Each structure stands twice: as C-alpha cells, then as structure tokens.
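ok here's prolyl oligopeptidase:
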Amino acid sequence: MHRRPSPFAWFTAALALAACKPAASTPGPADAPPGGSGGGGEVAARSAYDYPLTRKGDTVDTYHGAQVNDPYRWLEELDTDETRAWVEAQNKLTFGVLGGIKQRDAIRTRLTELWNYERYGVPSKEGGKYFYSRNDGLQNQSVLYVADSLAAEPRVLIDPNTLSQDGTVALSGTAISQDGKYMAYGLAAAGSDWQEYRVREIATGKDLDDHLKWIKFSSAAWTRDGKGFFYSRYDAPKEGDALKQKNEFQKLYYHKVGTPQDQDILVYERKDHPQWGFNGEVSDDGRWLVIRVWEGSADKNGLFVHDLAGGVGKKPVVELLNKFDAEYTFVGSKGSTLFIQTTQGAARGKVVAIDAAKKDAGDPATWKVLIPEAPETLRNVSHVGGKLIASYLKDARSEVRVYDEAGKLERDIALPGLGTAAGFGGRAKDTETFYAFTSYTWPTTIFRYDLKTGQSEVFRQPKVAFDPSKYETTQVFYTSKDGTKVPMFLTHKKGLERTGQNPTYLYGYGGFNVALTPGFSVPDLMWLELGGVLAVANLRGGGEYGEAWHEAGTKLNKQNVFDDFIGAAEYLIAEKVTSPSKLAIGGRSNGGLLVGAAMTQRPDLFAVALPGVGVMDMLRFHKFTIGWAWVSDYGSSEDAEQFKALRAYSPLHNLKPGTKYPATLVYTADHDDRVVPGHSYKFAAALQAAQAGDKPTLIRIDVRAGHGAGKPTSKQIEEWTDLWGFVVHNLGMTI
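and the structure:
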C-alpha cells in the first residue's frame, strides 16, 4: 500500500464532495485597479446591504512593463488591527443577512438529521490487530478504534473530540508499526496544515514522551523492527509567520522512539533544491526506504532509494529515478525488485518492475512491464497478498482489477454500481483487504475482500434517513467551446421534468490531476431533497483521462477549464434542465478560482456563486506558504507570457465596476494556511466595490478553521446551513 502526502491534499475531492463560455473577457487597462479607480481614501459600496468601508491603498506593481494596482494589499496582513476590524465588520453584515433568511432553520434541522448517521473508515491491519475509524453521527471528529479481530468488541485508541472543547483539533495522520505495538499520530489545530506528531502505546493507550513539531505534507513510515519511523518537516518559521511564510527546504528525518526530536537523524536534504519535498515509505520486508521526491504540484517526480540493510544511514541514498520526466509511485517490492506505478511512456499509467540492485536500474530499457497502459486511466495500485490490485477510472467512475505479481489478469472486482471505490491497502502476506464504495446516493459502505476467493462482503453499511430509490444519477457528455467532449454527472429526483426552471447546483474543480468521481455527501443529499439538480462536471485540468487531459487545463491552457465549465452551464440551459435565473455554481480551492473566473467572464449566466477558499489573486499566489508549488499547474506572473494568461482570467483582476454580478457568498477561514484568506478578502472587497446590481456580495469568514481538512461536524453543519440558505433564498426556492 502506498501513500502520497503532498501539498495538494487540498485539491482532492473524489470521496469528499460536499462532496463548475464564450471567450474570456479582455482584461481592463493596466492602470485600472480591481474594483475601481486607484488612489487612497475610503470608498463606501453602493448597495442596500451597507457594506463596510474598505480602505483603498495606492500599491502599484509593475509586471513586464505593465502597471497593476493592488489597492487592497493591506488585507494580506492578517493580524493587523485594521484587518481584524474589517473581518469583524464583514462577518457582522454577512451573518446578519444570513440570519434573516426564513428557510435557514429548516435547512439546519434537516442537515443535522441527515448528518446523524453512523459511519466508518476503511480498516487496516497490523500486528494481527484491526484499526478503523468510526463516527456515531454528530461527533465533531471520528474516533480511532482497535480490535483483536473483526468480530471482537473494539476499544478506543484515540478520541480527538477530547482534545479541544470546540472539536477543532483533528487527527491528521496515523501510522501503525508492523508489530502493532506503537502508533505515530499527527494532530492539526484549527484547520492548519501544520502537524505535531506523538507516539502512543497501543496496548495501554498511553502516550510516550515523543513530541515532534513543524511537520507538514508528510506521513510517518515505521522501520520493520518498530523502533522508529521516518517523517519530513520544515525548519521552524519566523515568529508570527507560521500561517503565511513560504514552505521551503523540507528535510527527511528518522525518529527513534523514546528520544527527543533534536536527536533525530537527518536522512536526506537538498540545499541546492529548496522546493524539493520528500516522503518516505518502507517496504514490507524492511529493506528499502523509498523516497518520493516532489517539487510543487507537478505529476513528475523523482524516486530515490535507501538500502536499510545494516541500519539507517549506513548506506547512501541512491537517486534511482532522478529525471523528473514522469510520475513514479512505489507500489511494493520482492527482494531487490520494486513494483512501480508510472506514467513514463504511458500517459494513462502502467506498472513496471525495476531491479534496484542493478547499476542501470534507472534506464527504462531494463524495466519489465507488468501491467501495460490501458484505455482507462490507472489511478492507484496496491501490493496485497501477493496480488497487484489496480484501480482505474473509466469516464470518471471506478473499475478495479486484480493481477498476479507477474502482471497476469486474474479477475475484475464486481462493484455495486456506478461510483467510486477506494482502499485496497495491506501487506504482501495478507489474505484480505478492505475498500470503500460510494456514489451520489450510496452512503460510503465498507467491504471486506477475500483475496483467495475473490468475494466481497459488507463490513459496515451506514443507515441514513433518506430513500435512495427516489433519486437517479446519469452521465452526459457535452461539447466545450473548442469541440472537446466533456463528461458530467447529473443527479436528481426521478421523473424530473425539463422545464428550464429546476434549481441547479453546478460544481467543478478542473486542476492538479484531481478526478471528481461520484461520492456521497450530506450537503449534496440536502440539495437533492430540496428538489435541486446536482451537476458535477469533469473538466480538463483534472485526472479523469490521464496526463494529457490534465495538461490541457494547465498554464497557458487554463482557459480551457473555464470554457468547459461555462459549456456545462450552457448545456444545462440548452437542455432545459435549468435557466440562468435558477443556476448556482460552486467550487473550493482551485474550484474557488474556477467559480471566480466563471462569474467574472460570464456574470449573465449564473444567479448565485459560491467561491470557497479560492485562489483569487493569480499574480501573487506563489508568494505565500505552499503557493509556489502551484506554479507547475498555473504558471507564474514572473514569466512574461504566463503573466498575460494569468491576468486575463485572474478573478481579482477581472472584476469590472458597473457590472451586475450574481448573488455571491465568498467563504474562507482565518486559519487557512494553504490558500491564505487574503485571496478571498481582496476579492470580496473588490467585488463589493464593483457590484452594480442589487444582488448581495458577501464574505463569510470562519474562525478557528482552515482550508477544510479536519473541520468539525458542527462547523460543517453551520457552513452548509449558510451556503444552502443563501442559495435557496437567492434562487427564490420554497421549502
């Protein structure tokens, strides 16, 4: 089983869906700032909503001879008294407006009812014990349990709900030693990416004195003897800069249980490559430390190996695959042979065997192809029980195949229907594995798969207070602006009449090789119960059809993503599913950028926009935390040609005063250290100044929250009560 921590956990949406164009508009004159004219002073918004006064500064940047004003630059400074006062004033207005929506209480009540169901995570097995998470329904955080057998009564191993009063301390990662004696676990507070790791003795449930800090974008990988583990961390940031300082010079360490962090062994660093990151994984037999070397969000990485025979650091780290010409992921090993999933010479993925003991092991000519490239997109491979379990996407839905170690196809795994399967982890000697299956109307169900018989059986199946037989999901294909066929999932009540008046929520992402696949979520179910249509578009830039599909939505091709999204909206309107007055759009993170670009390019096409934790300033995103890593997908304003492309669609820089924009609820969080909240702050200020229509343009700023990972159930219910309330009210829906 392999893991891939990276700075782009933020763009994964497959199983967590709340869980999308005529040509781009021409950017304004170089001296026209977003949201109005330049210069100092304060400008009051022209609206019945009485927006707070937002000071305009006189900051001007020069990019390749072009001057670009940035009047709201001061909002990037998150901890000043002025910014705090602005946040407080905006929230006072927003929550006042939201509190006046009459349907809001009914939405909250039903969301709470729907969310109150028992749900489980996919089990793992170590040292003869089973580990899995469970949430009894409304617990803010899921609880991790351990059991001696599948039939045994489990006991609590760690309950994150006891770690804070408001549920904002989340379990952000766990790793169990092979002997089942210890668990290394990470905790993240208030939604931050920063983690602190501790070690718990599994038999007693007690923590040792081990305490590791400044960990980010890392997992823990135990040595086979269980005496210690590998992890990656950064140097401590400057005082007060933890939420915005650039993350560079990550280092890979070995921590021996029972020792202080300052005695950890530095295994690998690269002072000549400040943006390289490292994630280590130990082979089942304990011989190999396989180091995934990543740089930014690119799907091209290195794979280095460290032979642990004789101990940590006794042999040098070998740059096995150092050309960064493709994606390489460690799957498993057998002796000196490493099983590697790669896109080298196979844009949709394949599996090869590499003999790490050979001097020419890095030469593709010496590799043996075990699983060749298929018409479907290979997304994940695991080595379990002497089998290679390969998970594919066919038109954005899962197919799973089982091969032997020589690459011979043994069988397909029968799935319950159109949906998403994930899991299939374990060790090379296991006789069983577990996986989850989910779809838009199928709550995430956990299956046990017998590797000998090839049979699946339900391990845990949740019971949710709704009737899935009333709904249906279909997949359609529409034509984008340049003629590209794009798939989209439509979910709604059976018997839907295409009157052109159905309230519709169009969701999208389109970036970083992330595939949007069918997944169950309570907020989506709430929308369906309200009579809405859920439309999820599989835009270019994602990973639904391999690397070519991804690259078609990156850098100078990024406009394709927005064209695909606008094309989805136009399809829904042409097919009389909905109309502009009944169409809402939403997306988070890179999807927030998507919504911001779509609403500024085609404000006439949408009634409501929900841009969440979005990348809104495309000229400065790379200057904060891990933002530099997104250059591989977006490009950079430091490049003249890429600057022109970025400025042409950057949501902040394409707001035009005097335009009637959709009703918009921007939402972000004050502790978001992935996409810093300054993006949303500046966009909301400029939007309020530019809005010429009578629709509200508000910003909702969550406190003690981050980019989304680990958000307590209570906060999720609050957030979706506000989002759906805003949509329902502004689409004129009745409950």
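+1. The domain at 70-113+466-731 is CATH 3.40.50.1820 (Rossmann fold).
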